[in-house]
Amino acid sequence: MQGFILHTQKVKDEDLIVYILSPKMLVKTYRFYGLRHSSILNGYKIDFALEENPSFLPRLKDVLHLNFSWIMQREKMFIWQEFIRLLYQHLKDTEILEKFYFLLLEECVKRFEKQNPKRVIIDAYLKILEFEGRLHQDFICFSCDEKIQNHITLIRAFLPSHNHCALGYNFEEKKLKDFYDNKNCGIFNDEEIQNLYNLIKEGL
């Protein structure tokens, strides 16, 4: 079985509760004697096995790291782990999951090799919003329910508003439409990318 480590929680000594995103579910498992085995870090992709325990969580065993080519690049790893933390907070109360989330992380890992990591995360987040039915493409202000034109202010979860209705970041309507249609943030300049990334950091 393969999965991405979304979160670890120390229990006693070096034992851990480990949350792993697999293709079908968010696995909650127990790992004994953390210091005696290979390190377990958020964001790592692993191959693993589970030993069922009828009275407690399944035991994590036979862990094998599946390395990324960029895993030693500090900035990319920082951005990756930041996104993983946000994804865990978003999914932590769910057990059964669509394969979409696992495949999205696999796509991100590949794109991180050659692309700007913040741009990769922004494209990924847009796909999450669309998949979950939370992408507002009609540009109706969430505050006053009136149509927005030309310049659109986005707040957390890319909710659209007029600039006088909410504090957020302003974007051209044409650019946002292109972004939403193509699922690619290449149309935005570096400042706009940072603004979009700042919104993602507020929570998925």
In the predicted model, the low-confidence regions spanning at least 5 consecutive residues are none
- How many helical elements? 5
Structural class: alpha+beta
Task: Using the alpha-carbon principal axes, give the shape.
Answer: elongated
In round numbers, the mean pLDDT is 93
Q: What order do the strands of the largest sheet run in, or round the barrel if closed? A: 3-2-1-4-5
Fill in the CATH topology of the largest domain. Answer: de novo design (two linked rop proteins)
Q: Please provide the count of β strands.
A: 8
Pfam families: RecO_N_2
Organism: Campylobacter aviculae
Domain DNA replication/recombination mediator RecO N-terminal: 1-71
Protein name: Recombination protein RecO
Tag the structure with descriptive keywords.
about 200 residues; alpha+beta; OB fold (Dihydrolipoamide Acetyltransferase, E2P); de novo design (two linked rop proteins); five-stranded antiparallel beta sheet; 8 strands; elongated
